[in-house]
Amino acid sequence: MESLNQNLMLSSSSFFSIPFLLTTLIAIILAATLFIVRNHRKLTTTAGSNSPPGPWKLPIIGNIHQMVGDQPHRRLRDLARKHGPDVMRLQLGELSCIVISTPEAAKLVMKTHDKAFASRPRLLAADLVFYGSKSLTLAPYGEFWKQMRKICTLELLSAQRVRSFRSIREAEVSDLVASIARAAAAGKAVDLSTMLPALTTAITSRAAFGKSQQLTTDRAFQVVFDNISEVLGGFAISDLYPSLKWLPALTGLKARLEKLRKASDSVLDRIIDDNRSRKSSATTAAESKGDDEENVLDILLNLQESQDAGVPITMDVIKAVTLELFMGGVDTSASTVEWSMSEMINNPRILHKAQQEVRQALGDDRGNSVDEASLHRLKYLDMVIAETLRLHPPGPLLVPRENRERQVELNSYVIPANTHVIVNAWAVNRDPRYWTEAERFVPERFVDRSIDYTGNDFQFIPFGAGRRMCPGVSFGTAVVKLTLASLLFHFDWSLPAEQKSINLTECFGATLRRQYALHLLPTQYCSVL
Ligand code: HEM
């Protein structure tokens, strides 16, 4: 959603904040003193005989100091290798966590005990920005979440609905292609790290709110959106110490969240008012739809009016859900396209093969833009996308779960109620026991293996699995595939003169983005201007 998925994905950005580091520093000094007094502690501990193993922890801060760093998915994988390969226990402040790092353990959490672990931890940001956790991603497991999930899968993100947004995708991708063509004609490199999120923002905003509300140029909304993504990235220090009720005020987080809520409220109120006045002034049903297909906001407002959604669709619910779908749709797809292009540029054989497939399948008509109806023929491109999602899942740690109701027995371990569960999908997708040369980008590995995004292949979980798995798979993959096919069909790609290869360093935030902007030189293959 932060990328909400994601965009609501667990990220590390707040581990770097100054208040966080200061508080951590003071706590570390206190803790270190206590630690020296008890220096006979073992380096790997088990809290009780039935508790999963975990690294040694300091009093007060637990294992927080071991999480400081910019690659938490890698740190967690390394810690797990040493202290708990399947299931590892961590203490983050007052929170008890377990970290899941293998397909077997992921299956236990997201299939065998899926229902018990289907809740989400309480986050201050969810309460203050997402209207009291009224969004699907952050809602605790229960009746409200079940009804909203139904609405989401049957109404907002169903395969049929995603198909109905086809003209939006095609129009926006063809605008992107036209602007890249202008750069190509001028012999200039393009910055795909800026262009791709702008594209996915435009597509998602039209699907969520309609063309007349297109927000791509709306600076106010962009600022709100970026801020929410940042705040939702990672555990805020106050979420790690929920008993210290004064902490959010002290760290300034509460004030910041309240300000964000006001800002997002004013943007969403304006959009909803516009939508209503457009409807009431329209004289025909066709007019009331505006210039796009029925959008997500229209559907939610209709459900509110008809009162048969199973739960009250209040204005807060409408705002929380539109905001989260907007956030979920933007960064996840953009970063997938960016990583695909990066990997292909570093592997010219793969780039050439994917490009040949697209050009052969879509014909040699140099005036044509890519037609979505032909995309099912692109089997190799499907493998490229799957391999990208395996190595660079936008949500490497999924969205944290919690067994809010009761204790669970996981293998032989007892997991007490209210334990946070972090599933390291990034580590699972690279488990060397299941993937040959797991760190290499090899799309052909999917020739003899079906590409399964349904959450039934626990060795490959870029969209999560179980009850809480991503409901935006069709929406996301449709955007990714059309964009990649168009980039490959219309242009040949190379590195700017001074560059030898693409640096693949990751930047962990709301989603797992590239650390450095992706600048590439396009050469036009088809005439698109
Ligand atoms: C390449 C694209 C995408 C990827 C890789 C992705 C990945 C994920 C992941 C890993 C989760 C957490 C699953 C879990 O906790 O088990 C998630 C949840 C979610 N995603 Fe996506 N996502 C993508 C696109 C989208 C899009 C386009 C939307 C909506 C427009 C969306 C909406 C959501 C929502 C609402 C949830 C929360 C579900 C719940 O908690 O019940 N995602 N996504």
TrEMBL record:
GO terms for molecular function: heme binding; iron ion binding; monooxygenase activity; oxidoreductase activity, acting on paired donors, with incorporation or reduction of molecular oxygen. Its cofactor is heme. Heme binds at C470. The keyword Transmembrane helix applies. InterPro entries: Cyt_P450, Cyt_P450_CS, Cyt_P450_E_grp-I, Cyt_P450_sf. Pfam families: p450. The chain crosses the membrane at residues 15-37. The keyword Transmembrane helix applies. Keywords: Heme, Iron, Membrane, Metal-binding, Monooxygenase, Oxidoreductase, Transmembrane, Transmembrane helix. PROSITE patterns: CYTOCHROME_P450. Belongs to the cytochrome P450 family. This is Cytochrome P450. It comes from Linum tenue.
